[in-house]
Design brief:
Length: about 80
């Protein structure tokens, strides 16, 4: 007896690899594995709108700002 299971084709790319791309939909894991400053922003900014975002895991602690960038924007006023 043969059984069939419906499959949905999917692709996975890293945050680094997605730079420069525009995505209409994305499923993301934004947890402790996002270690570099700005990486969370880069991941989210690839989407055309937040309607296409599906968060599988999320931790608010992943959003880190470099001290140099923070200093620049504080002095930019």
């Amino acid at each position: 007896m043969m059984e069939q299971y419906p499959l949905l084709l999917a692709y996975s790319i890293t945050i680094h690899r997605s730079q420069g791309q525009t995505l209409s939909q994305a499923s993301m894991i934004l947890d402790h594995n996002v270690w570099e400053k700005g990486q969370g922003y880069v991941a989210l900014s690839r989407l055309q709108s937040l309607d296409g975002l599906h968060l599988l895991k999320y931790s608010p602690n992943i959003f880190k700002v470099d001290k140099t960038v923070k200093k620049y924007y504080n002095n930019w006023k």
